[in-house]
């Protein structure tokens, strides 16, 4: 006869009180949450042999349902104890020290971290090792590099010229604007003070011409928004236009020639070092 009226069966004992432990966290070697065969994070279901050796559901068929440790059959009995440990295992986002408060189920953290708005971005200025969130990149750039001769080019003080063009809602309206860029400068950073976004326009000299591309220094998070761009180059009455369905978002500016999302200006249409271009960056409607 159970003494507790709410627990007449006697099987559901009151849960152990851990109120004082709510703010403490358990230390666990995370390797135990990975399949010992493929080393990938376990997902439910998890199987065990009669001796208690475990393997994940994708490894069991690959092993011919034979335990790799003791050769007994594996793939029929679930390891419910490990499954409940897995269900209760949460990891803090790797950007917690920068302010992210997300707690993520073990093994699923990459999905969030790829688009975490607290991700750290490398400052695109040459020789600068500063890294910070994409919004702080904007302020860092303003304070540190706005008067830089950005990449060693002859008469380059272009950053000052471009900032005033970024008026309120420019991107929402998608207004096109013209700008010049020296091929040898390799990069111009365009910034929007309203949304605190930085865009990199980069040139890559190849044997048959120059590639020009635009990317956005921000995480692929929904709150950042998505943008398309249309880039045109005009010379001697010829206009070449490239329309990209979406501006690529990058963590770090790369100096590898891109394979896609580029305007290719062939050598025959180049006139010296200066490129006169027209760019329209437009915010895409969120679905
Ligand atoms: Zn496995
Ligand atoms: Zn076994
Ligand atoms: Zn995060
Ligand atoms: Zn910097």
UniProtKB/TrEMBL annotation:
It catalyses: S-ubiquitinyl-[E2 ubiquitin-conjugating enzyme]-L-cysteine + [acceptor protein]-L-lysine = [E2 ubiquitin-conjugating enzyme]-L-cysteine + N(6)-ubiquitinyl-[acceptor protein]-L-lysine. Signal peptide: none annotated. SUPFAM superfamilies: TRAF domain-like. One of its GO terms (biological process) is protein ubiquitination. It comes from the Eukaryota. Residues 35-70 form the RING-type domain. GO terms for molecular function: ubiquitin protein ligase activity; zinc ion binding. Its EC number is 2.3.2.27. It is an enzyme of class 2 (transferase). E3 ubiquitin-protein ligase that mediates ubiquitination and subsequent proteasomal degradation of target proteins. E3 ubiquitin ligases accept ubiquitin from an E2 ubiquitin-conjugating enzyme in the form of a thioester and then directly transfers the ubiquitin to targeted substrates. It probably triggers the ubiquitin-mediated degradation of different substrates. Belongs to the SINA (Seven in absentia) family. This is RING-type E3 ubiquitin transferase.
